[in-house]
C-alpha cells in the first residue's frame, strides 16, 4: 500500500480523489489546502477519517512520510509544491501546466532526476480513446505522411476565480492540452511558432482569451491553432475540432465521437483524385485511455518499477515549450524558435 498526500482541494480535486479510490492500493494519508475547511470537506466526502488535514504542506509531508504527492494547486504554486514533494522523497504527479515558466520546468526536471523520483503531469486529454485511435490510423500509413494539422477551439466559459485574472489564459491554461495532442498525433516535436493574442470587446478575461498560432514541426508538418474562451454560440468540443492532412488523405474529428477519414484510391479523374472512406482502427490492449484515471494508473505503475509514463516531465516539457514559445511570439510579434 502506497501512502499519498494530496494538496489543493478545489473543484478539480474531485476527479483525483475518485481516481485514487478506483485504483486502490493507495492510501491518502494527508490532505492539504490553504483553506483547511475545504480540505476537511473533501476528506469527509471521500471517507478519509484518518488523513492528516492541514494548510502547511511541509509539515504534513514531514508528519506523514508519504511515497507520493498529488499536486493540484494553482499554477503560481506549482514549482514550490513539486520541489517540496521531491525534496521529501516523493514521486509527484502534478496538474498541468507543469510550471509557470520554462525555466521553472527545467528546474523541476533537474530536481526529479537528482532525486531519482518520477515527476509526471496530468495531460489527461492524450488519454482519450479518440486521440489514441487517430494516432493508430496515422501510424498505419493509411493517409500517408502527416503534412498539416489544424484545430479550432471556441467556447465561452465563465470560470470566475484565478483564470479570469491570469495573463495568457488560453495558451497557458487550456491550449497545452491541444498542443500536446497535436504533438502526440504528429509524432514530432515543435521547432518554431508564430502567434497572436487579442482581447475581444465582450471578453470577461484579463488577457489572452483569444489566440491563433502556427507551429512548425521537426518533420516539416505545420500545426495551426485558432481558439477563444469568450466565443458564445456554436461551441466546439472541449477537445477542439480537428483536421489532419496527410500525403495520401485526411482525417477529421469533431472533438466528440465522430472521426472520419478518406484516402486517395486512384489518380486524378478530372479535377480531383479518387478517394474512399478509411476505417478508424479500434483500440487495443496497448492503448492508454481513461483521462485522469489513465494518467494516474501509468504514474502509479511507474513508481512501482513499471514503464516511464508518457507524461513524464522530460516529455511534457516539450508541450510546455510550445505554450511559452507561443506566448513569446505573441508578446514580441516575431517567429520564435522553440527549444527546451
UniProtKB/TrEMBL annotation:
<dbReference type="GO" id="GO:0000166">
    <property type="term" value="F:nucleotide binding"/>
</dbReference>
<dbReference type="InterPro" id="IPR036291">
    <property type="entry name" value="NAD(P)-bd_dom_sf"/>
</dbReference>
<feature type="domain" description="Gfo/Idh/MocA-like oxidoreductase N-terminal">
    <location>
        <begin position="3"/>
        <end position="121"/>
    </location>
</feature>
<dbReference type="InterPro" id="IPR000683">
    <property type="entry name" value="Gfo/Idh/MocA-like_OxRdtase_N"/>
</dbReference>
<dbReference type="Pfam" id="PF22725">
    <property type="entry name" value="GFO_IDH_MocA_C3"/>
</dbReference>
<protein>
    <submittedName>
        <fullName>Oxidoreductase</fullName>
    </submittedName>
</protein>
<dbReference type="InterPro" id="IPR051317">
    <property type="entry name" value="Gfo/Idh/MocA_oxidoreduct"/>
</dbReference>
<feature type="domain" description="GFO/IDH/MocA-like oxidoreductase">
    <location>
        <begin position="131"/>
        <end position="251"/>
    </location>
</feature>
<dbReference type="Pfam" id="PF01408">
    <property type="entry name" value="GFO_IDH_MocA"/>
</dbReference>
<dbReference type="InterPro" id="IPR055170">
    <property type="entry name" value="GFO_IDH_MocA-like_dom"/>
</dbReference>
Amino acid at each position: 500500500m502506497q501512502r499519498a498526500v494530496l494538496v489543493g482541494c478545489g473543484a478539480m480535486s474531485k476527479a483525483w480523489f475518485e481516481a485514487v479510490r478506483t485504483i486502490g492500493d493507495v492510501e491518502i494519508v494527508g490532505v492539504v489546502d490553504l483553506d483547511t475547511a475545504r480540505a476537511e470537506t473533501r476528506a469527509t466526502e471521500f471517507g478519509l477519517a484518518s488523513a492528516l488535514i492541514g494548510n502547511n504542506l511541509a509539515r504534513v509531508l514531514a508528519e506523514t512520510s508519504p511515497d507520493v504527492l498529488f499536486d493540484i494547486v494553482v499554477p503560481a504554486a506549482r514549482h514550490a509544491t513539486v520541489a517540496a514533494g521531491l525534496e521529501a522523497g516523493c514521486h509527484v504527479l502534478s496538474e498541468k501546466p507543469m510550471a509557470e515558466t520554462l525555466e521553472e520546468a527545467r528546474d523541476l526536471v533537474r530536481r526529479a532526476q537528482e532525486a531519482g523520483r518520477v515527476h509526471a503531469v496530468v495531460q489527461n486529454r492524450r488519454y482519450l480513446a479518440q486521440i489514441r485511435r487517430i494516432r493508430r490510423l496515422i501510424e498505419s500509413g493509411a493517409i500517408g505522411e502527416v503534412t498539416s494539422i489544424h484545430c479550432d477551439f471556441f467556447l465561452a466559459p465563465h470560470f470566475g476565480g484565478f483564470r479570469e485574472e491570469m495573463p495568457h489564459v488560453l495558451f497557458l491554461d487550456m491550449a497545452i492540452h491541444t498542443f500536446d495532442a497535436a504533438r502526440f498525433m504528429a509524432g514530432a516535436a515543435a521547432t518554431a511558432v508564430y502567434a497572436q493574442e487579442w482581447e475581444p470587446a465582450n471578453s470577461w478575461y484579463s488577457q489572452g482569451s483569444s489566440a491563433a498560432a502556427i507551429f512548425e514541426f521537426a518533420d516539416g508538418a505545420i500545426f495551426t491553432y485558432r481558439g477563444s474562451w469568450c466565443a458564445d454560440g456554436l461551441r466546439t468540443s472541449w477537445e477542439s475540432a480537428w483536421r489532419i492532412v496527410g500525403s495520401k488523405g485526411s482525417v477529421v474529428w469533431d472533438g466528440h465521437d465522430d472521426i472520419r477519414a478518406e484516402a486517395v484510391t486512384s489518380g486524378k479523374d478530372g479535377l480531383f483524385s479518387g478517394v474512399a472512406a478509411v476505417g478508424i482502427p479500434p483500440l487495443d490492449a496497448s492503448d492508454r485511455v481513461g483521462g485522469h484515471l489513465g494518467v494516474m494508473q501509468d504514474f502509479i505503475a511507474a513508481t512501482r518499477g513499471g514503464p516511464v509514463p508518457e507524461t513524464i516531465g522530460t516529455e511534457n516539457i516539450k508541450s510546455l515549450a510550445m505554450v511559452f514559445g507561443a506566448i513569446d511570439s505573441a508578446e514580441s510579434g516575431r517567429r520564435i524558435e522553440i527549444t527546451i
